Structure formats: C-alpha cells, structure tokens
Amino acid sequence: MGVELRPMGVKCNIACQYCYQHPQRDVEDKRKPYDMELMKEAILKEGQKFTLFGGEALMVPLEDLEELWSWGLKEFGINSVQTNGSLITEAHIDLFIKYKVQVGVSMDGPDALNDVRWAGSLKRTREHTQKSQWAIERMCERGIPPAMIITLHKGNATADKLPEMDRWLMGLDKIGVNSVRLHLMEVENETLRQAYHLSPGENLHALTHFHHLEKEMNDLRFDIFGEIKRLQNAEDHQVSCVWKACDPYTTAAVRGVEGEGQRSNCGRTNKEGIEFVKAPLPSYSRYIALYHTPQEAGGCKGCRFFSMCKGHCPGTSLEGDWRFRTEHCEVWKKMFELAEEEAVAEGKTPLSLHPARPYLEQRLLEGWSRGQNYALQSLIKEMASKPQMATV
Amino acid sequence: MNEMSFSMPAFKSIAWVSNQARLSWAHRIKKLNHALADTAVKLVADGLLPSLQITVEGVLYFKLLQQARDLEVPLEGRLLGNKDVPGPVYYWVQLGDPKSGLCRACAESSLLHLESGDKECLWELNSEGNDTETIRETENPAISGHLWRKLVSHTGPIRPCSLHCSSLSRIDRKIMDGLRINGYSEEAEWREAIYSWPVEWNAVNGIAELRSPVVKLAYDTDAAQEKRVIRFNGTAYPEEGPFGREFPYKRRRFLRISDSKSFKAGLEHGN
Fold it and tell me: pTM value?
C-alpha cells in the first residue's frame, strides 16, 4: 500500500494506445497548476511514502522533482517514481541516486514492439522508445536498475514476436534488471480490443512462454508467477492489489493525491472519465456478489481458485462493469492450474485442493459482510489456533 | 433463471464527482432530509394530507418519532432490511391513518412490497410494457423520488400502484408547498434541482449503482443476474457536474485523445 502522487494528473508526453487513463484525458477540464504545500500536507495526512506517478511523472520540472524528493527522503527515507522513461536525462539519474528514488519503467519491448506506446507519429514513437531504452541501460550502468512493467498485447506478445521479446529480456537480465511485472492489457473499447487485445489462448501462450524463459534467466523474475505460487500456498501478505478484493470506490492499494491535494482512486476502475473523490469506507460487495453469482452470469460461483483470485482487478471486469469478474478469467484460471500442478508434483497440497478451502471461503465472506477484508495468512493462523480445525 | 437466492448485506458507498460537488451538495442533502421529515409530520398534523409515507435513513427516524409524538400524529414505522446485519439503516414510516390515504391501491401495493422483503421495486415500476428491454429510458418525474431514495428521503408510497397514479403528483405538490410554508424554501429549491438532473440507476448481481452529475453511489439491491438499467433524462445539469464518457454526464463533442488525428494514426499503424 502506498500513496500515488500525481502533480500533473494524467498529463503525459506520449499517448499509449491502450492507456486506461484515456477516458479521463478525453473529457477532463484543464487542470490548475499543482501546489507543493497542499500535496505535501495531503501526503503527511496519508502518513506513507509516496510514488510519483502520472500520466508521465517526469513532466514535473527538475527543480520541483528535487524539492519533492529531498522532502520525501527526509520524511520517509526513500522515494519512488513510475515513468515511461523517455524523459529521463543524466540529471534525473543524479537525482534518483541522491534521493534514493526507486524507478519503475513502463515499456513493452524494443523498437517496433513498443510502438503501441505511441508518441504521435512513428518517428517520434521510435525516438521515445530509444530514449527509454537508453535510460534503462544508463540506470543499470550507474547501479540503480529499474523495475519494469510490460503490458502484453498483439504488438509484443503474439507467437511471432516472442523471440524478439526473449532477446530483449535476456539483455535486460544481463545488464541487471531483476524485476518485471507482466500486465494483461485492460481494454477500454472495442476498437482497441480488435487492434491490440490478445485472445485468452494468446495471453496464455505468452505467459507460459515467459514462465519457461524465467528459468533461463540469471536474476530477472516475473513477479506474477511467484505471486500465484504464493497464493496457492495461502501466502497473500506480499502479493499485489489485484488479488486482494479491491473496492473500486476506495481502492485501498492506491491512495492517490492530486496536484491540489485532492484524494483520488486508482485510475484502472475509472471508466466514466471522472476522477471521483475516494469514498469514506470500503465495501466488499463485489466479492460477496462474485462468490454467489454463477460463472455464466459473470460471477465466480464454484471456482476453486476464488479465495486466491477473488475475480481479480475490478478495472479489468467483463463489460467494464466492476460487479463482474475479470475478463481475463480463463487466463488466470489456467495459471492457477499450472501452479496447482507444480505444487502437487512437489508433494504439496495447494490451497485450491486443500480441505480447508471451504472454511477459508466462509470466513472471507463473513468478513466482507462486516466490512473486513481478511488476509488468507491471518485466517490460516486463526485455524491453527482452533483445536477442532487442526485436522483439516 | 434471472433472480438469485442470496441476499446482499446492506451497504452504501458514496463517491462525489469532486470536492467542490461534495462541499456544495452533501450538507444541502442533509438539510433537505431534515426539512422533509419535519414537513411530512406537519402536513399530516395540520390535516393538509390525511396520511403520508416517508422513507428515512438512520437517526432521522428517531427525530420523526419524537415530532409525531409531539404533534400527536399516529405513526407506524418499519425497519427496512435486517437489524442483525451491520450497514446503513432505513425506516419506512406511515404517518396518519393508512386507511385515509389519497390512493387505496398505492397503500395496498406498498404493504405488499413491504411484506415481500424485496429491496427495490424500481425495475417493475418502470416496466410500462417494455419488458424485454434491459435499458429503460423515462421522462416521468414520478420516478425521481424512487431513484434518489438512498440519499434523499422519499415521500409518498414506497411502492405506488403506478408511476402514473394521480396521487403522486398531488402528494409532491403538497410536499413542495409544505416545505415553503414551513420555512424551507431553499430546501424546496434544492429538491427540485436534484430531481431535475439526469440520473442512471443500474443493477446486477445484488449491487445497484446510482449515477448522477454530482455523486454516484453503490448499494445493496435484489440479486438478479440480468443487468438492468433505468435512465431518467432530466431537464437540467448542475454547474458542479463534470464532463464524462457516459450517461448521465455531459459529453464533449470531441474527445481529446480518442478523436485526435495522431491517436487514430497510431491505431492505423497498430492494425
């Protein structure tokens, strides 16, 4: 959990074709300039370290970045930023080092494989891609390898493109990048779906391909596979927000602070293009509904992976409606099945096949009905403390 | 089978479109609810209405109880929902003699609704013959009170015999006059404004969502698998209302990114 500081809102120097923030960019009014003091005040109220976020976070001028990060270092001992990398200069890297800024770069591949991250024309797009690539290499040279986020789509993850992705990823592994998050593309409309969205089969092929590739890497790891494995072990404290029953009205994992100090939610669930003010209290109604609703009606009823997946991120829900499960259900089911098979092969009983699963599901439901979102790990501890449950 | 057997525990999530909208309207709605409760009791006490149903949230019920006692107005109240489940609490209240209401059919259908345990009746009320549609549009102002009832106290039968029942507009006129007579002119204007905005109610899998130009809320409803949508087109749009991509928000003719030439060039390249 952390604070996403968005001084310039969703303003960006490029316009990735699939960006989930476009509904907002399409309709929002011109923003007022950010106010440093209001932003700092809001972050202090949140009481947590912040990640500089956007749009493109590095559109903020260097002197303001320095002010924010020197303040962040003093207050929290660490800083972080998520960027497309194309605006990074040597001066930025100096600041990253000086103020202990952990850098996350969103980039989908080398050269043409990154074309979906469109910068207005093909020439400009390729130039931006080159700049991002330079920034990644330079940060590695200077001892601060970035973490990467790669979104999978037709531009980089169909079978014919995977060999080139492999070469690029092996190269990143060699220069020191060790953490890569794979995202399945969130679709905002049918035109984009047709142009870029991978079929469930293509997504699965790409994910299993990267799962195998990981075994050939020195240090680079795709965090998604480790997370699914941990979930099958009922270890969910360190997994990402998509597995944690996110309420779209409060998005607990993302506490956004905008340029004037206004609180906001994660943009993934924003389909209206409106930056709603965070609701005061979370509700877990989506998860109660999914548990009871048949799968053919957009729910998760009867799914043995539900206690781990929970219908996944509401931003990726079927028909763009947060009350349904993720449209990537088929892909995630298969990934959980693979983790299940691997666990069984190792002589373990994964959560999906464990006799305690119905008890855990009931406890999750009870908690959600009372506004509590229990971690599986806590419930396992609770079970262990009950003598009558010791046999399951 | 469209209906499902589970019952969603009571909940209500509120998200304002902006801080400005919250600052403008949250306290107005609170004041309006108090004014409506006060006015409802006085209308019956003064004999301007023989009886009146009102649905109120939380502690307002106890204020209503006290005032009805003070003015010697007969009152019957029922908790809507399950008292053992934590969550927002609503009460249906009958003020005055139920047998002397303006429409006997409305009184009967309201009682049937209360006894059925159904959480809402919006979809059925708004059928008007178009039973096969999953999006129903309406311009009937009688639906406003039902659409807004989770935020604004609803006055009138909880389940009228029909949205075209003549008693509804008569009750509404009495309420508006009553508000003004009792010194709540501002509140009357706010109510009129709120009920004039475009609003969408939609529900699926036991969760309803009400979207208005200043606030959206999610709450528990009857669990049905089929998604149901009702759109009230409205006649005005508040100054705090933002631009948005979908109904009920005002829309831009030109979408800055999606309609731009450079973005479309990217799509073409991608294809």
Answer: 0.93
